Amino acid sequence: MLKTSWRKTEQHLLPAQKPQHTSGYDIYPAFQIPAGKINNGFDRLTEALKDEEIILLDGFNGVFFEEFADKLKAGLMAKGRRCQTVDIKSAMKAFDEIDQLIEPFLGGDDPLFGSRSTLELIDFFDHGKLRKIGEKSVDNVLIVYGAGAALTHLDGRLIYIDLPKNEQQFRMRAGSITNLGAEKSADIKSMYKRAYFVDWPVLNNHKRELLPQTDYFVDGQRPLEPAWIKAIDLQNAFQEMSGSVFRVRPWFEPGAWGGQWIKNKIQGLNKNVVNYAWSFELIVPENGILLQSEENLLEISFDSLMFMNGAAIMGEHYELYGPDFPIRFDFLDTFDGGNLSIQCHPRPSYIRKYFGERFTQEETYYILDSGDDAVVYLGFQDNIMPSEFETALKESFSKKEELEIEQFVQKHPAQNHDLFLIPPGTIHASGKNNLVLEISTTPYIFTFKMYDWLRLDLDGKARPLNISRGMENLYFERCGDYVKENLLSKPVLIESGSDWQCFSLPTHENHTYMVERFHFSSSITLSTNNKVLVMSLVEGITISVETFNGIRTLFNYAETFVVPAAAKSVTITNLAEKEAKLVVAFMKNPSIIKEIWNKD
Hints:
The chain folds into 3 domains: 42-225, P-loop containing nucleotide triphosphate hydrolases (Rossmann fold), CATH 3.40.50.300; 303-486, Jelly Rolls; 492-597, Sandwich (Jelly Rolls).
């Protein structure tokens, strides 16, 4: 039985049907597939499964598996079938045994960071108990449900139930779910840390193994009205998507420093929130993809596309990255908000050693919009003594006294279309009154906050600082004139035509990606050159993007979209009278990336 308050958030639940959208930023961008491919509810699913003897309901942690199995059982019994249901959790190891198993990956008393798990889902189970699950009563339909149901290796119909990461977190906040193999729910920060470092790596590997075997995929975010699709139809959709262009579904969150730009300018969001700090435009470990058949919507995780069609998406970089999509775009909104924390990100060797990540956060701040007093904090002042800086930070925290941060950190005016370079180990923060398009490599939680303006988080508690970790990663030589010469990107015109120009926005030598910006009044044609391209319309109203195979898609101001390597080329047409500006990010050559990874 579902709790009344099974999700805790101000964000709307994804509707079953696509809302009418006429213009501007679309919060429900969907990839069109043929009619009749997406179904809603249990009736038609029960009809499809009515003759089965064994049904395996596997999927992601946080799905309400028991409720799903009960609904399916009721439908089958209404058709005259007798059913036996088994919760796969009954075959799991004891809670304390699982706690010992995962303990090495949870980072001890660190409130934020652990290390990416190397466990497999089978490690959470008692093998003897798993074997016994195959024993069923004669003439009963056996329904085995829960994350890991397929580990029984029973010969039955396999249904994979997916759950968007944001919805999983909303359920965590409501206390309606637990972590994988946990006895009970906990506070959201502890649950998120365990999910990021243990649950998600383990379950993603399991999902990757199951995808070729799955018969049906279910979107489990609407428990009473699940959307579902046949595996063959999903595979066909992914195949078409991999040679076309698409957006992921963005999602939005308030934060301690959040602003009002997103809230005021993006339609369809719940306005009854204090602010919006983030828009996850393309943070693919947590974003999903929406498919649309007629008006019906279904969401499935982006990593599913990468598991099935990663080579077509990544082109020449697939060998290097595999299913790990390397580029991240997101918005940081500080309009009428506050400054971000003074922070830095780990060096490549540090993130590998301590957190088990293959590559690190290499950021840039692209200023999409700004107020008159907007600034970015970036780089040190000349002649800063590291010990003096560390002492000042620690005393500010312990004494709860404000720190005059500009004694140590430079402050630069920020204007629309500026690009600030933030390679790993660089001190930085966005000031208030910016709408930052953050272009980065994909890791996204490894921020070492060093000074946070003495403010509290939205839960009324102080946000944890990571002064010691920050000090272990900072480059204090990024100071003085070095900052203006090497961390403030200076556009270079590299190509032009009758009504268009292409500017290189040079990134740092320790960035593994490049950024370009196209200014155009009519049309431009771009080749992927066997690389995945990530684009955002940073000025203009609406553009159309047409692939070589004739598929045409419209995108609007501030929307981010992906052009897979297999798309080969796209023709982009400005549909407004004013000039359009399009930012394009792509990875450097694989050999250069390997060299950067080995530098510190």
